[in-house]
């Protein structure tokens, strides 16, 4: 496995929506390379025919009853909003129009 | 009277006999927090008015019960507890140790907290934590580290270090922590208290801010084993709000507390006694195993051959789950918002500035492991090794009732000692991580001290839903040894402060 380059760090940061400083990019390139190098030992393990474990519980497809209930009051939901207007969460536009 | 010294069950006894009121107990803890927390920083938020109001309600229930003993009395009536600040208490700021949630006030309550509230508990406040529970030392809190009551130059362990330090320093009667890779057991070991990680699904995760969803579990941190059983009794059980809570009835855990281990088979895995571990830790744990044998247990060597792969497996799976769970912090619905020129800039800036270094490191690691081209090599591979680790335990538990080993390879390390080297820091959880990967239960109890007077923890692991077994072994060991009676030298610090 190759060490992680700065370009790869920038690409991962873009996927993760994280603004990183130049120092952070250098630091994470080094640290992620070291951590992934350590993870190489997993490749020694023969896992052919071994199913992956996603959950340890012996349950699947748990459904709740589909019953209408009282929603939380709007003011309470909006109380933590960084910005709000007209009883809605206020954000910048996702699409730009001319 | 020094009510802060009492365990939960002792406090209940004093309250029952009417020797003290819940308000007096609560006030004693609040005074002690005021005096000592500036030194330890175990709490992020203290809620004295709410706590005293809850204590007054508890006293009213005690009074009603005295007038008519047939009045139902909740199990924890008037007991002051602390809650790790990644678990939601309705109306009380929940920061997760992060700037991104600095001012977040949850409009709902975790099921575990709601059950404690219904049981009459009093909530003193929210305890310090590594940011989003990511860390092994509580140094990753955006609000500054917690210090170990046994030695303020040392870490309390992490990520429930605030809760463990608060219990050890008698700043609460008991606390809730969360354990994703050992974050209840490891700080309990480093602070000399009891920490129990229940079986995955035994306690509802509703209202626990998610980090690694397939691993996270809420657990009690207490002054003794009986208190751990008592708190688990209340918080355990299925919850319709958490589809991953285990649909099994809750046994009476206090029935498991018998000071005798005849008929119990105890497994000792050589893989948990590794080169490089602190010799005093190994010696204390070996001596503890001898005590268990004297109490009637049969000691059997069991092998857990995939143990050495647990750490890389965990640090692949947990960050992958974290990268998905933490996608919700985008500055739109709650928390910090750093406005950029476009919405995309706002997302990036909010997250880049709002998250601390360890959280960003794990998001990056998880995003990488899940990204196209690397998923099979990293994430899927880790999920398969996780199966092998589970199978190791399943095979071992066919031969033994519980497994005993150290909780942590070292006692509390110095603040700052490992912060520059994430891999070195990750090693602090090397003995606890397997239980989370396998979904089994585990408990840490004090088993001695090193040459510098720092506590050592004995870990007892049990099979899924095997809480009664680990509680029985922990209780028998505790009753046969003096360690849990020892307290950190806090009163000297207290006199130093008030006497100045």
Written overview of the protein:
The complex is a heterodimer of chains A (98) and B (500). Helices cover 34% and strands 4% of the residues of chain A. Chain A is built from three helices and two strands. A two-stranded antiparallel sheet of chain A has the order 1-2. In chain A, a hairpin with a 2-residue loop joins β1 and β2 (88-89). Chain A is flat. Chain A starts with 5 loop residues before the first helix and ends in a 9-residue tail after the last strand. The model of chain A has no long low-confidence stretch (mean pLDDT 90). With 500 residues, chain B is an alpha/beta fold. Helices cover 40% and strands 12% of the residues of chain B. Chain B contains 16 helices and eleven strands. In chain B, strands 1-3-2-4-6-5-10-11-9-7-8 form an eleven-stranded mixed sheet, with helices on both faces. The mean pLDDT of chain B is 96.
């Amino acid at each position: 496995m190759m060490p992680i380059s700065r370009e790869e760090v920038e690409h991962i940061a873009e996927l993760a929506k994280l603004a990183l400083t130049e120092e952070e990019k250098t630091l994470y390139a080094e640290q992620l390379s070291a951590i992934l190098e350590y993870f190489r030992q997993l490749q020694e393990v023969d896992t052919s025919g071994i199913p992956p474990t996603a959950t340890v519980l012996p349950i699947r497809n748990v459904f709740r009853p589909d019953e209408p209930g009282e929603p939380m009051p709007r003011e309470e939901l909006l109380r933590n909003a960084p910005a709000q207007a007209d009883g809605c969460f206020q954000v910048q536009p996702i699409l730009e129009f001319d | 009277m020094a009510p802060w010294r009492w365990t939960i069950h002792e406090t209940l006894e004093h309250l029952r006999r009417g020797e003290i009121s819940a308000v007096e107990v609560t006030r004693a803890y609040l005074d002690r927090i005021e005096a000592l927390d500036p030194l330890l920083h175990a709490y992020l938020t203290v809620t004295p008015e709410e706590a005293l109001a809850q204590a007054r309600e508890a006293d009213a229930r005690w009074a009603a019960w005295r007038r008519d003993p047939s009045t139902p009395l909740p199990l924890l009536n008037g007991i002051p507890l602390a809650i790790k600040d990644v678990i939601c208490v309705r109306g009380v700021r929940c920061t997760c140790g992060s700037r991104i949630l600095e001012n977040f006030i949850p409009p709902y309550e975790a099921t575990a907290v709601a059950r404690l509230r219904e049981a009459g508990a009093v909530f003193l406040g929210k305890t310090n934590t590594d940011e989003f529970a990511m860390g092994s030392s509580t140094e990753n809190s955006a609000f500054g580290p917690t210090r170990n009551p046994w030695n303020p130059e040392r870490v309390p362990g992490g990520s429930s270090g605030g809760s463990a330090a608060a219990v050890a320093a008698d700043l609460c009667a008991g606390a809730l922590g969360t354990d994703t890779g050992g974050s209840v057991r490891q700080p309990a070991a480093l602070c000399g208290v009891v920490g129990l990680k229940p079986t995955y699904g035994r306690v509802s995760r509703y209202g626990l801010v998610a980090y690694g969803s397939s691993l996270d579990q809420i657990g009690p941190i207490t002054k003794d084993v009986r208190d751990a059983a008592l708190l688990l009794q209340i918080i355990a059980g299925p919850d319709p709000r958490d589809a991953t809570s285990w649909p099994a009835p809750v046994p009476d855990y206090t029935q498991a507390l018998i000071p005798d281990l005849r008929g119990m088979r105890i497994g000792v895995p050589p893989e948990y006694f590794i080169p490089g571990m602190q010799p005093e830790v190994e010696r204390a744990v070996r001596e503890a195993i001898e005590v268990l044998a004297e109490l009637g247990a049969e000691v059997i060597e069991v092998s857990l051959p995939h143990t050495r792969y647990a750490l890389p497996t965990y640090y692949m799976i947990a960050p992958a789950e974290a990268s998905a769970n933490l996608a919700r912090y985008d500055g739109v619905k709650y928390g910090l918002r750093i406005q950029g020129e476009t919405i995309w800039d706002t997302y990036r800036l909010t997250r880049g500035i709002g998250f601390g270094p360890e959280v960003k490191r794990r998001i990056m690691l998880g995003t990488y492991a899940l990204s196209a081209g690397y998923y099979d090599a990293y994430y899927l591979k880790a999920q398969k090794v996780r199966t092998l680790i589970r199978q190791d335990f399943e095979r071992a538990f066919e031969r033994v009732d519980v497994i005993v080993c150290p909780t942590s390879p070292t006692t509390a390390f110095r603040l700052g000692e490992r912060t520059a080297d994430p891999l070195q820091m990750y090693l602090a959880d090397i003995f606890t991580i397997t239980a989370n990967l396998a979904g089994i239960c585990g408990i840490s109890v004090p088993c001695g001290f090193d040459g510098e007077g720092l506590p050592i923890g004995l870990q007892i692991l049990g099979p899924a839903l095997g809480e009664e077994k680990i509680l029985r072994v922990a209780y028998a060991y505790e009753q046969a040894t003096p360690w849990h009676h020892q307290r950190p030298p806090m009163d000297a610090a207290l006199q130093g402060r008030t006497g100045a």
